[in-house]
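Researcher: Here's the sequence for the chain we discussed earlier.
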Amino acid sequence: MNLNPVVQRARALLLSPRAEWPVIAAEPATVADLYRNYILIVAAIPPVCGFIKSCLLGYGWQGFQVFRLGIAAGISQAVVGYAVALAVVYVVALIIDALAPTFAAQQSRVQALKVAAYSYTASWVAGIGLLLPLGLSVVIVLAGAGYSIYLLYLGLPATMRVTADRAGGYTAVTVVIAIILGWLTALIVRGVIPGPSLVGAYG
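Model: Thanks. This is the structure I predict for it:
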């Protein structure tokens, strides 16, 4: 598998999003293409890193003991978290598409999935921070979530053709719904497999 296009796209989004969004919007794509060529790969970062941290590296406890999740439980949580993340990004795309008329934007299921998936890039890449000590991990994960919101704000005008004056409201409503959705799915994952949750949304 050639990961270079994925790395290049993620790098461009993180370093020069204003230039990258028009390129993304103009690219021909299908839902299957977006999942196969990008989402399935980048969305795997948080569950894989979470598994390594929780099952192999472990969490320090009061500077003395190291707590590790069992391998079976860790694999189960990673798989469930990954599956839920793949579903959540599509549901967020459906929400973005459904909200389009409210903000005088252009409806398009594929463009909505583009902006949802590529906006999540910062959050997914920030999943690498799960390998670090808890304090640093929280800072990096929160920074990734914040940057994902910024990416969404920049991406909506290019993909959904919303005007600049409406982009802020479109972003805010989408983020609020995504946060609620992320919170609910995190509860589901925790209910199925106890332990640190690997599911996140924009916040």
